[in-house]
Amino acid sequence: AQADTWRYAFEEALDEVQGVFAQKFKEEIEANSDHEIQLFPYGTLGESADIMEQAQAGILQFVNQSPGFTGALIPEAQVFFVPYLLPQDPEELNSFFRNSVAINEMFPELYAEQGLELLTMYPEGEVAITTKAPMRSPEDLNEVKIRVMTNPLLVESYRAFGATPTPLPWGEVYGGLQTNLIQGQENPAFFIESTRMYEVTDHITFAGHNNFTTALMANKDFFDGLSEEDQELIRAATEAAFDHILDYQEGLTEASLDAIRAARPEVTITWLSEEERAPFEASAESVEATFIEMTGSRGQEILDQMKADLAAAAEG
Amino acid sequence: MTATILGIMVVLLLLGFPMMIPLIAATGVGFYWLFGSLDQLETMVQQMMAGIRPASLIAVPMFIFAADIMTRGQSAGRLIDLVMSLVGHRRGGLAISTAAACTMFGAVSGSTQATVVAIGSPLRPRMLKAGYKDSFVLALIVNASDIAFLIPPSIGMIIYGVVSGTSIAELFIAGIGPGLLILFLFSIYCWIYAVRNNVAPEPRMGWGARARALQRALWPLGFPAIIIGGIYGGVFSPTEAASACVLYALVLEMVVFRSLDLRGLVATARSTGLVTAVVFILVAAGAAFSWVISFAQIPQEVLASIGIDQMGPTAVLFVIAAAFFIGCMFVDPIVVILVLVPVFAPVVRASGLDPVLVGTLITLQVAIGSATPPFGCDIFTAIAVFRRPYAEVIRGTPPFILILLAVSVALIQFPQIALFLRDLAFG
Amino acid sequence: MSETSEAARPPSALPGIFGLIDGAIARIEAFFLAAGVLLMALNVVANVVGRFAFGRSIQSAEEINRILIILITFAGLSYAARQGRHIRMSAFYDRLPQRGRKIMMIFISLVTAAIMFALSRYALQYMLTQQGRGRVLPSLQIPVWLMLIWVPVGFFMAGLQYALTALRNLTAPGVHLSTSLAEAQLPDPALNRGEPAP
Ligand code: NA
Ligand code: NA
């Protein structure tokens, strides 16, 4: 076969989860073919929306974009922002991602409408909330400004949690926390560690409300135009990277938290108990309602299917 | 290819084309070379849009607007009268105050372009009146604004910290040493300039006159209070401080001093818009240009060709300094950091360099590059705001650039300039 | 930068009906430029006041600013071309004799016009692609392509200004830096920004 150069852009740095996934994918492709993969980490070709458009235009062959950012294109993908939908148990979560009908059958159709071949969706880690004061109940979040991405569902979630959601560009978050403009933010543990959020917030709380999900896709025309053999190569590389990232994540949160503890021992790390989570969990309903309002019957279908898939995963 | 693109840019530039054209033409050639046709030029438009998208850019037109209102009205004049009453009798006093004001304002606003406007607009006429040459004044404003990158909060350092995984708190502290050193050296140069060019100091003012100046400046002193107190006090983000300044300027000039009417306001808004557009179209074109460079993996190629893997730590630092310095001569600093930091990451790791030192050096280069011809953003801003020709704006820059480069070399040879405070705080 | 003198100057140097149309366009550009800045100020000020007085930020503030910054940049693109305000490095150009400068200015204007027209075409294509994708701004729920309308228009109008500058240099005596700025009219260096308008 002819040796091609394929370009692959993602939303994080090379040593963060998406970067680790991308490197494994590259390694697999290059080990099993003459093709070359060029990796473009965060910011080098633009922001999330830009690299998505470049993938749609066929300039990039592969793009990793989190469904939450895909909201403008595929509103249904925002379902991953509905709190307390995904399970916290890693095995249950992995089984869900492997077997979900919503992920493996319904979403690919929605992505195809946008000229994208959805190759896989994978978890990046449980989202933790970092704050300046301890938080154990919605009352603790009263008047607390939590930075969220500009997304209606996230805003609704934090409002339901009792906080004051404050959409702020990522570049202003560190400074904003330092100057007390905001008092909290949310991200997976590895990201809290790599972006040094623990330097400017003192309490890391796992409320179990979400696991950050992301997705790898290819330009559909490019993918459909490939030989059977190359398509198989890409699927196999995706599979290998998926397995690798699940292994990699085992203990990633713990390792990140250890690094944080070592760097700044006074930071507290808390997992809320079932009882403490209950009032937060109760708020999920209003966010679901917002999601349905935004996405209509198609959103309802996806949500129902995901719940069914999750029930199946829970039964294992 | 790299040579062709650079050649086109330089030729078009020297012929006297509007500056956006060399950037756009070079980008177009890059697209043609990458994709064999111009069909993908849509992505160039996309990247131009991306260039003017960052939310932090909004602070620029807002500070321009506030400064424009203040200078048309009375606030700026009253503030400067106060400064003059305190330091006007010292040789180079006004110039040194300007440098200090640029540092202070830039530090908190986080934007060198906003600083050029906000401090430059009111102070430049006064410096000219005092007898400083315009080329010196323009160069001083443009270069002193750059110190902003080094004094926290620094957007450049935040981006570097995030991309490279370096402690932002440590970076912030490490920037202070070199920042103050530059301010100190600039002040010395201001003094030498004033002595050599015989810029006459004003007569010393009595305490009564100073008290009167202070009283007249009481209201306008709200501006530094909003900017410095507001941001360090955690009340405002830099963008919000800009908005608060606009609001305060409007209230002061339209209601309290009654020096601006509605017609004047509209005219001010139009001139702010014009200046913003002239600068932002270049920011947009620069973003598209950097996309091509990044997509074609030109930095990787260049680094490989000079054999960076075989170099020692000091040589690596010099290469990094040169790369960021050159990059920022053409493209917006934030974009340069995003594109080049990952490219250098493996080399930095392998050479065992302190990432905080690297970050400080990079920030310093970014600052210098922004004020360096041909495409330094601050130069564009100065041209657009002060309506002086390009050649005039850059004529006085060499001594300043020389000082900045000397500090860079000093930083590479004596990392303690940056790391001393960091080690004190975190050691 | 005093603009009172601009208002006093005839809005267009073109003859007859073209002059009328051109003058009207100039007014529209100037209006959008001022309106863009004022709206942006209103938006950011309201956002700050909202946050302090009511503890709530305007959710769509950032998106409104994005729309306005595009408006300002591209309405300003052609307005600045008309005023001859785009930044250029004229050190070598300035050394040419008058005839050389005139020829050079015709060449520069024509090439710049061609590039602006080409960009206008690709910007239009980009806008239509966005329209086809149906993307919306997440918070305002406005289609993304709507905020891009100014981009092809701005490039086209700027192209037109540069083409007219070439035409003006070809038909009228003297060197013209833009349709409304001849070399002799260059702003007086003594007229500094910040001094009260005459
Ligand atoms: Na700063
Ligand atoms: Na620059």
UniProtKB/TrEMBL annotation, chain B:
It is a multi-pass membrane protein. The keyword DNA repair does not apply. Keywords: Cell inner membrane, Cell membrane, Membrane, Transmembrane, Transmembrane helix, Transport. The chain crosses the membrane at residues 50-70, 136-160, 172-195, 216-235, 241-260, 272-296, 316-344, 356-386, 398-421. It is found in: Cell inner membrane. Its main location: membrane. Residues 6-417 form the TRAP C4-dicarboxylate transport system permease DctM subunit domain. The keyword NAD does not apply. PANTHER family: SIALIC ACID TRAP TRANSPORTER PERMEASE PROTEIN SIAT-RELATED, TRAP TRANSPORTER LARGE PERMEASE PROTEIN. Part of the tripartite ATP-independent periplasmic (TRAP) transport system. The complex comprises the extracytoplasmic solute receptor protein and the two transmembrane proteins. Belongs to the TRAP transporter large permease family. NCBIfam families: dctM (TIGR00786). This is TRAP transporter large permease protein. It comes from Plastorhodobacter daqingensis.
Automatic annotation (TrEMBL), chain C:
It holds the Pfam family DctQ. Keywords: Cell inner membrane, Cell membrane, Membrane, Transmembrane, Transmembrane helix, Transport. InterPro entries: DctQ, TRAP_DctQ. The keyword Flavoprotein does not apply. It is found in: Cell inner membrane. Signal peptide: none annotated. Residues 40-170 form the Tripartite ATP-independent periplasmic transporters DctQ component domain. The chain crosses the membrane at residues 30-52, 64-82, 103-124, 144-164. It is a multi-pass membrane protein. The keyword Calcium does not apply. Its main location: membrane. Belongs to the TRAP transporter small permease family. The complex comprises the extracytoplasmic solute receptor protein and the two transmembrane proteins. Part of the tripartite ATP-independent periplasmic (TRAP) transport system. PANTHER family: 2,3-DIKETO-L-GULONATE TRAP TRANSPORTER SMALL PERMEASE PROTEIN YIAM. This is TRAP transporter small permease protein. It comes from Plastorhodobacter daqingensis.
